[in-house]
Amino acid sequence: EVIRKRLLIDGDGAGDDRRINLLVKSFIKWCNSGSQEEGYSQYQRMLSTLSQCEFSMGKTLLVYDMNLREMENYEKIYKEIECSIAGAHEKIAECKKQILQAKRIRKNRQEYDALAKVIQHHPDRHETLKELESLGKELEHLSHIKESVEDKLELRRKQFHVLLSTIHELQQTLES
């Protein structure tokens, strides 16, 4: 309970309030001191308490300055971290673009490979032209054969017609 009260009274626990109270009491004793020796010892105690208070105040000021510098340092680090995060977001966006481009390239390559496989199943242009030329010659040859067969067929028709007309005449002659 005593420690709790002291901590409540003395905020950061440095004992400054107690020292100031002791200094005030020492000053009152010094003012009321009767002998010079007692006054001198009170004076020395006051100086010692005062130097302790000044030391504590200097220490507190140094801690305060250090805290301010640390806050500035933390702000600087915070800004650096924000910049790194922004840079990381930019890199992520750039990498996403690269991934999309790589996917598109991969898709195109797969399509090219599929087309190449289809093309490989067909003969090349030189062989196709040779085959086309060969088929053209064969078609020409077959059309000559067709013409000659048609000519023969026409000739045979005429001959058959002549034969039929001769037979018909022969029949009429036989009948008459």
Automatic annotation (TrEMBL):
Belongs to the THOC7 family. GO terms for cellular component: THO complex part of transcription export complex. This is THOC7 protein. InterPro entries: THOC7/Mft1. Component of the THO subcomplex of the TREX complex which is thought to couple mRNA transcription, processing and nuclear export, and which specifically associates with spliced mRNA and not with unspliced pre-mRNA. Required for efficient export of polyadenylated RNA. Plays a key structural role in the oligomerization of the THO-DDX39B complex. The keyword Plastid does not apply. It comes from the Eukaryota. It comes from Crocuta crocuta (Spotted hyena). GO terms for biological process: mRNA export from nucleus; mRNA processing. Keywords: Coiled coil, Nucleus. It is found in: Nucleus. The gene is Thoc7.
